Structure formats: structure tokens, C-alpha cells
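Appendix B, example 12.
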Amino acid sequence: MSCYLQNSVILPNFATMKIRFALILSMFLIITGCDYRNARKTLVEADSLINEYPDSALKILEQLDSRDADAETRSWHALLLVKANE
């Protein structure tokens, strides 16, 4: 059983996993940005998270500006927003 020591408190695996997930998500958002040219890559990432982590997918989707994207990308963005809000 691996543990993570933070502020003299040992956190169980679930808490460690949440911390790592938050760091990875933050790095992903910093690297990809929200430029419309990267919109499809961002939508693929959000789509892969939406079933297991809908709140994280929603954060990604809310930061994405798809106004300048093509109609297909804007439609996909709208569909994922609805799915993440369910």
C-alpha cells in the first residue's frame, strides 16, 4: 500500500490519486490552452473523462471557447457540455 505524506498526515491511495489527477489535469490545461485550433484535442480529452470524472470534464469544457471553431466542433462541444451537466 503506497501512501503520501503531507503536513505530517498520511493520506490513503484514493487521496493520492485525486492529488495526482488534479496535477495532471492542471498540466494538461496549461499545455493545451484553449485556442480554437486545439479545441478538438481538448474535446477528445474531455470526452475520455466525462463518464468517470464529469466534474473535471465540465471544467475543461467551460474553459474552452469554441466560437471560432467549425460547426462540427461547436456541436460536439455543446453535446459534451450537456452530458457533463447531467
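The chain has one domain: 4-85. The beta strands are 4-6, 9-11.
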